[in-house]
Every structure is written in C-alpha cells, then in structure tokens.
Amino acid sequence: MLASLNIRDFALIENVTLEFGPGFNVVTGETGAGKSIIVDAIALLLGARATPDTIRHGAETAYIEGIFQFDGGQAAATVLERLGIEPADGETIITREQSKTRSVARIDGRAIPLRDLQALGPTLVDIHGQSEQLSLLRQARQLELLDEFAGLTASRQDVGALVAERRRVSREMESMTADERELTREADLLKFQVDEIQSAGLESIDEQELLSEHRRLANSRRLAELVRSIESAVTPSESGGSAADRVGSALDEISEMADLDESLAPRREQLQAVAELLDEFGGAMRSYGESLEDEPQRLAEIEYRIEAIATLKHKYGDTIQQVIEFGEAAEQRLNSITHSSELLEELEKRRSELEQSLLAKCKSLSERRQEGAATLTRIMAAGLREVGMKDSRFGIELSVRPDEDGVLVPGRDEPVRIDETGMDSVSFVISPNRGQPLRPVSSIASGGETSRIMLALKAALGEADKTPTLIFDEVEQGVGSRNARVIGEKLGSLARKHQVLCVTHLPQVAAFADTHFFVEKLSTNGQTIIGVRRLAKADALGEIAQMTGSGKTASKAAEEMLRQARKWKAGQTQD
C-alpha cells in the first residue's frame, strides 16, 4: 500500500506530507481547493508526463516521494525483481524530481528510465479519474480480469507458451521457404566456399613451419655461400690459417707446457674439448651444406600455398582456425538448404501438432470463460441494483476474431486469430435503462452511470484485481444524494481488500472513511498555497457537517451518517 507521500513545490503545494492508513482514506475540501492535485502528484510519481504547471510558481523543481509497503505476492515484486531491485524490510521508496528541462525517477535511490517507472506504476496503484480512460474499460483489461475472476491464469499461460512455440516454428518455416531462386544462389555460393576451403587442406598445415621452409628454400644459394665461408674459417686447410689449425697448434704447445707443469693439465683438456667442438661443428656445417639444394619446384609449390592461405584469410577470417570454422558453418547451412524439404516436413508436422494442442486448450479456456462470465454477470446484476441501477442489464460478450494467418477451427469457414490470451475477445456491455440495447461499457455517456458501473465492477472483481491501492478522483460525479450512501458502502467494501483513496464532495461517502484528510487554500508571503491535514474524529465530524450544510440540522445529519457507517462496518466485520 501507499504508506506515505511527500509533495514539494508541485502545482499549488509548497510542502505537504501525508501518512495514509490501510482501508478507506478520503480527501475532502471546498470546491476548487485543489483536492485532485494530490491525485495528480501520485500519477506523476508513478510515470505520468509532466505538464507546464507541474512546478509551483517561483520554484525550480517539483519533488514527489512515495513510500510503498509490500505484503508479498504482488505483481510489483516481479517488476522490481526484473529491474534488479529488492525492497528492504518490505518497503520501497519511489521519487520523481521534475525540473523545467529534465525529469529524474528513482527507486530506492537508483535512477531508472521513465518506461520502467510506467511499467511499475499500474502494479502499485490504479487511478480512476473523471476524464481519463479507466483501466476497467479497456477490453484487454476486461479479459485479464475475467480470467483472474474465473481462476484461469494458469490455463492462459499454457496457451501463451504454445502460441510462442508455434510462432517460432512458423518463422523457421518461413525462413526455409524463402524465394527459391535466392536459396539456389545461396547454395551455389556456399558450395563454392566449402570447396575452396576444403581443397586447401588447412587442417594438415602448420603455417609457421610452412613459412620457415619458404624462407630456407628462397635463400638456399646465400645459405650455401655462408656455409662455405664458415667451413674455410673453422676446418683445417693447406694454408693452415683456419681456426682448427690454430687451435691444433695451440694444443701442441699447451701439451708441452703440461708436460713441464702438471698444473696446466686441466687447461690442455679444455683446449682439447675446443678442438673436438670445432671438429664437430665443422662436420655439422658440411652435412648442412650437403643438404642444401636448389628446389625451384618445391619453392613454387610453397609460394602457391602461402598465397592461397592469404586469399582465404582475406575472405573468411584472420587466422587459419577462423577460416576452418567459417567453412564448417557454411557446410552446415548448405546441408540445411539441401535437406530443406525433409526439415520442412518435420516442421509442418510439429506445427500441426502444436495447433491441435492449442485448439484443445483454447476450446477449454473459452468454455471456462463462458462459465466465469455467467457467474460474473449474475454478481453484477445484484451489484447494479445496489448502486441504484435496478433497470440496468449487464453482460459479457465473448467472440472470436477472423484472421487469414490464424488457425482453422472446426465448424468455422475462416481461420481464427489466436494469441497469448487464446482466441476470445471479451467486451463488458450494459444497458443502463430499460428498453435500451446492450452497448460496450466504454461507450456509456453519463458520468454518473459510468461511476456506478465501475464501482459495481470493482466490488464484483475485488478478489480478482490484485492492485493494492485504488484511487478514485470524485468518482461519484453525477451521483445524487439518494445513491451516495451506496457509493460509500461500495468503496468501504473495496477497502476490505485494498487500500482505497477517494477524493469526494459527498458527506455520505466521507462518513465511511477510516482516515480523513482535509484540503484548504492558504495565503502565505503573498502567494496562495494548498494545505492538507489529517483530521481527528471530532474534526472529521465537523467537516462532514460542513459538507452537509450548516446549523444543528447539519451536525445531527453528520452524526447520523457516521453512526450508520460505523454500524455498517461492524456488520461487515462480523460477516
């Protein structure tokens, strides 16, 4: 429920904090005092668009803060979970700050987009104003409420799951039955790509090894020259000028020295190792030189492969592995096109199975909706009599919607549209006066009749409608004093299952309040502002008397209204 509301610099309100109670809250005040501004502030808090007069004259920013308490199992909790927000201690704080250039919405201090606030708002509060399109008058909402009333939410979700799966299968079929020429062109291109990649034999290629061999073959003559130069430098020669010759001479000399001084024996061994290493090195270089051959055919083959790999990488990926993966994906797509007729048959069979299941579930859902509609119609007949519309008739019309892309239903000549809600279209209809035909509730012209119809609906659907807070802004417009008490009783009944906030000018309605707020205009610093205060019992009695008239007669009438309201509440509690 809405536990607390703080409004600053909004319209004519400078700074007001309201602590709402559970049950029935009413807001009263003289005509033009600004009672509906409170409702407008709540609407802005929950995502309504700002208007030019949103910000109080002389202020820079309007600020609204609401504290909402949760008791579990509410649709709001699902929206908050999707937004990654978990209410602390069962409550959450929503703020809306509106300047002349920008609007900032926050939930528990975290800024959120306006669209997320607008998704959350209807799960917390349902506002019924005089001129706005009431949620109960929308056909989609009527269908939703009928399903909740009849306990069909789970069945409706089953239908939604089947519809989603059928759409997925249909999209896949459409993709496979695209333009035949386009598929043929795509298959030719895929075959060329697969053949080009597979013929390169990339799986057996070590690119680094290939590049290394290419460098060796391309530089074989230079390598041979360097080998000959090294051999002449390190191996024995007739001129005796090589490294091996010099080490040999030095070895002879160190051997003679070691014979004269035994301590030089380790040095002789060291030089002997150098001589052996030079001999080994020279042999290795001779072997390497003998392996060098001028292989122009092999070089050309390697250059061709390197160029082919570069071309494939330019087309299909930055690395050989990426080229291979591209080829595998192309082969899979080629296979799907090649075997499309077989896959299409499987998909067609799957779609037929889905449609059969869907038709069975939709038929069952429609039958149960008819039963729920009959029950709700009976309840509404009594409810309309209670609000003074004894000559009215109420009905719920269920119909199907033809759709050439829909599903064929046995007994019908044309396909029927089926969506996540099933195949039914629901319309609440009413005849307010005897002899008039039934018409959609949304087309009723009289404001008073609309108010009473809505209250009867709300009372009948009180169990189904899970919105925790219901707000009525002078909903009794057009209702005379004769039916005013019934309006109060209906609102009081709703307050047993919901928190109700009602802006009213009828004392008979105000008498049923659990919490009473009074709105008045004040003058401060040369400006007119709106003040709101919560009334104690004695003050509430005085306000109801003031609303009734003046003098002792009004006071007695107010006392009687309160006495009758208390008596009614006591009876409701006992029930």
Q: How does this structure look, described?
A:
The protein is an alpha/beta fold. The chain is built from 18 helices and 16 strands. Helix 6 packs antiparallel against helix 12 (320-338), helix 7 (207-218) packs antiparallel against helix 11 (296-316) and helix 9 packs antiparallel against helix 10. It is elongated and about 145 Å long. The chain starts with a strand and ends with a helix.
Question: Helix/strand/pairing class, anyone?
Answer: alpha/beta
- Number of helices, where a helix is a run of at least 4 consecutive DSSP H or I residues: 18
As a percent range, the share of helical residues equals 40-55%
Radius of gyration: 45 Å
Question: Largest sheet, order of strands side by side?
Answer: 2-1-4-5-6-7
**Main sheet attributes: strand count, strand direction, barrel closure:** 6 strands, antiparallel
Number of DSSP strand runs? 16
Shape: elongated
Arithmetic mean of pLDDT: 85
Share in β-strands = 15-25%
Low-confidence stretches: none
Distance between the termini: 24 Å
Question: Main traits of this protein?
Answer:
575 residues, alpha/beta, six-stranded antiparallel β-sheet, six-stranded mixed β-sheet, 18 helices, 16 strands, 54% helix, 18% strand
